[in-house]
């Protein structure tokens, strides 16, 4: 091993000759590693060195924080200490200096720091990390350092674990949340709070979204649920906000492992670009939650960076909902109607929250859960499949993800009730009654998802927008036999921009696929919510729904139409799927005027014209 010493205030290489020593100054300073910290985020360990140094004249140099990966290159010396910190020329001397600093650093303090909350396996036991330490099967534990940076996530803390009597009292306080409003709202939220710590057992691949107009106490409601993970949380102090950058939210939700993490105030405002940007941010984060995957990126060298994805359970709120059929299928939407939250009860529940009652209920639950985690891992999946099948059999929703969400939340509800029963807070018969109420409330909430999914279904949206295009006069259809126009054209056909997009018969609607799709997409963009599927995907969705006539491998059919010598290929939709509900299916509606008389006022589409 080479001999390194400090000579005249500089780190030097000492070479022993036959007759004398040769001293080679490696740099113009002295430096030591004083602390070595290993940051553990639950998936990766990163080592960081804290270095102190002095210039050769004795002037202290600023303390430096350098990752172990960056340390060996010695590039940090100039960037942190400036031009006066000189390293001897030559690549080998940099390598010598790196080795010298390590060898001379004999009193290094070594620390393990965790940069996440949630479950961590310590030996053969599971402990739940929070900013104040950890909770295990034996209660509160010392010796665990958790650093969550400057984020509000640092308020995730438990002051202790309650004793038996206090635990039962805390559980009974938690159950009071049920009477804050309708159980279709309160049970899913309470179930989510106790499902979140089961993220180590099974992925948290769904989120909850509370929507309602301003003044309905949405933020206060999310603050109460968030306070189960720290009494410092409240409606005005939540971990996340949609005004944060997408990267910041992604990182926050990665750190918030096995806990509820609220992202508050989804309120699209501003320009069309601003609204689209916010919807894109929500899509990225909530889709990452549903898919348990992050956004792949590369660094400057072309290597893939780590993916950060939500490891907790996101509960969001806002006056509007993020768009997209598949995104909405990945979350349970809970509506807060005006007057649903009772102010006098809200005040009482907020007082319990501030006093730490909910934090105590969760601390006891985590202690109770710790020795059970490994056993739950083997039984959870099978039980969830059984619950999903039960939800499927009750046909609570048309979308395949909704029964899975209901099953997942119900397992959190069941787990909480088992803990409440073991804590003597409720009797076994009360536990069974609450279990039944919980299942019924979750199923009712799931059933309401059908309307949301229909609103975002591209097939339903296309048909609704097509009706809007026709009734607004932006476009029209021609009766294939009579040449009469369908469309209200006092603001439409009299304008040059009104487009002919197809034909109509008593049995079919025939669309010029490119022109019709463009007209509908233009209407959708004017509403600030363009269709998010391509034209080919849209027609395939029509076909999959049994709402399209097609030939062989093509989505189109050939039809004879007026003023066309050849038989063009058109999109053919049976008229039964196109007419408004009040319309008699198959009845050919007479119209008032031919297309050539563009100055006349046409009656609303498909309304029968009196004789």
What topology does this entry show?
Blueprint (H helix, E strand, L loop, with lengths): L2 E5 L2 E7 L4 E5 L3 E12 L4 E11 L4 E8 H4 L4 H6 L9 H14 L4 E6 L3 E5 L2 E6 L2 E4 L2 E3 L3 E2 L17 H12 L7 H13 L11 E5 L6 H9 L13 E2 L4 H10 L4 E7 L5 H20 L21 E6 L6 H5 L1 E5 L7 H12 L2 H13 L3 H21 L7 H22 L5 H20 L1 H8 L1 H14 L3 E5 L5 E2 L12 E6 L3 E4 L1 H14 L8 H10 L12 E2 L10 E6 L37
Parallel strand pairs: 4-7, 7-12, 13-16, 13-17, 14-15, 15-16, 18-20
Antiparallel strand pairs: 1-2, 2-3, 4-5, 5-6, 8-9, 9-10, 10-11, 18-19, 20-21, 21-23, 22-23
Helix pairs in contact: 4-11, 5-13, 5-14, 12-13, 13-14, 16-17
Please describe what this structure looks like.
The protein has 611 residues and is an alpha/beta fold. Helix content is 37%, strand content 20%. The strands form 5 sheets. It has a 6-stranded mixed sheet. A 5-stranded mixed sheet has the order 6-5-4-7-12. The protein has a 5-stranded parallel sheet with strand order 14-15-16-13-17, with helices on both faces. The protein is globular, with a radius of gyration of 33 Å. Residues 488-494 and 581-611 have low confidence and may be disordered.
Short account of what is shown:
This protein has 611 residues and is of the alpha/beta class. Helices cover 37% and strands 20% of the residues. The N and C termini lie far apart (108 Å).
């Amino acid at each position: 091993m080479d001999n390194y010493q400090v000579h005249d205030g500089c780190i030097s290489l000492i070479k022993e000759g036959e007759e004398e020593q040769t001293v080679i100054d490696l740099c113009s300073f002295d430096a030591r590693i004083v602390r070595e910290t290993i940051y553990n985020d639950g998936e990766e360990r990163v080592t960081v060195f804290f270095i102190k140094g002095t210039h050769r004249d004795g002037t202290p140099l600023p303390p430096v924080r350098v990752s172990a990966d960056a340390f060996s290159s010695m590039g940090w010396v100039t960037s942190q200490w400036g031009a006066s910190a000189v390293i001897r020329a030559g690549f080998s001397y940099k390598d010598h200096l790196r080795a010298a600093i390590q060898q001379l650093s004999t009193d290094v303090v070594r620390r393990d720091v965790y940069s996440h909350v949630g479950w961590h396996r310590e030996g053969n036991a599971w402990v739940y990390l929070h900013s104040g330490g950890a909770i295990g099967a034996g209660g509160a534990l010392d010796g665990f350092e958790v650093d969550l940076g400057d984020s509000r996530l640092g308020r995730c803390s438990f002051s202790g674990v309650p004793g038996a009597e206090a635990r039962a009292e805390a559980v009974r306080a938690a159950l009071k949340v049920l009477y804050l409003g309708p159980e279709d709202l309160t049970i899913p939220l309470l179930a989510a709070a106790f499902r979140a710590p089961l993220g180590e057992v099974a992925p948290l691949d769904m989120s909850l979204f509370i929507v309602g107009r301003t003044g309905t106490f949405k933020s206060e409601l999310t603050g109460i649920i968030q306070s189960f993970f720290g009494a410092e949380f409240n409606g005005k102090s939540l971990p996340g906000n949609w005004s944060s950058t997408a990267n910041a939210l992604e990182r926050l939700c990665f750190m918030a492992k096995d806990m509820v993490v609220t992202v508050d105030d989804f309120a699209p405002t501003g320009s069309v670009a601003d609204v689209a940007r916010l919807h894109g941010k929500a899509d990225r984060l909530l889709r990452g939650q549903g898919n348990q995957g992050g956004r792949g990126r590369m660094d400057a060298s072309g290597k893939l960076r780590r993916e950060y994805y939500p490891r907790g359970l996101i509960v969001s709120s806002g006056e509007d909902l993020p768009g997209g059929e598949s995104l909405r299928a990945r979350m349970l939407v809970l509506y807060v109607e005006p007057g649903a939250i009772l102010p006098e009860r809200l005040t009482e529940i907020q007082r319990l929250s501030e006093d730490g009652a909910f934090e105590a209920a969760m601390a006891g639950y985590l202690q109770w859960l710790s020795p059970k985690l490994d056993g739950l891992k083997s039984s959870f999946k099978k039980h969830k499949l059984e619950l999903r099948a039960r939800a499927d059999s009750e046909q609570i929703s048309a979308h395949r993800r909704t029964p899975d969400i209901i099953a997942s939340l119900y397992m959190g509800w069941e787990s909480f009730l088992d803990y409440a029963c073991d804590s003597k807070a409720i009797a076994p018969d009360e536990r069974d009654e609450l279990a039944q109420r919980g299942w019924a409330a979750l199923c009712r909430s799931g059933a309401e998802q059908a309307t949301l999914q229909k609103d975002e279904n591209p097939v339903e949206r296309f048909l609704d927008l097509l009706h809007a295009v026709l009734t607004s006069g932006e476009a029209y259809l021609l009766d294939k036999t009579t040449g009469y126009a369908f469309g209200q054209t006092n603001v439409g056909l009299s304008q040059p921009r009104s487009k002919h997009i197809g034909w109509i018969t008593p049995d079919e609607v025939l669309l010029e696929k490119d022109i019709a799709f463009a007209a509908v997409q233009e209407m959708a963009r004017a509403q600030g919510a363009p269709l998010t599927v391509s034209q080919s995907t849209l027609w395939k969705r029509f076909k999959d729904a049994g709402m399209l006539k097609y030939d062989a491998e093509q989505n189109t059919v050939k039809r004879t139409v007026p003023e066309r010598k050849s038989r063009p290929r058109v999109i053919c939709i049976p008229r039964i799927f196109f007419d408004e509900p009040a319309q008699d299916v198959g009845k050919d509606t007479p119209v008032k005027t031919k297309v050539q008389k563009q100055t006349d006022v046409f009656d609303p589409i498909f309304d029968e014209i009196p004789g």
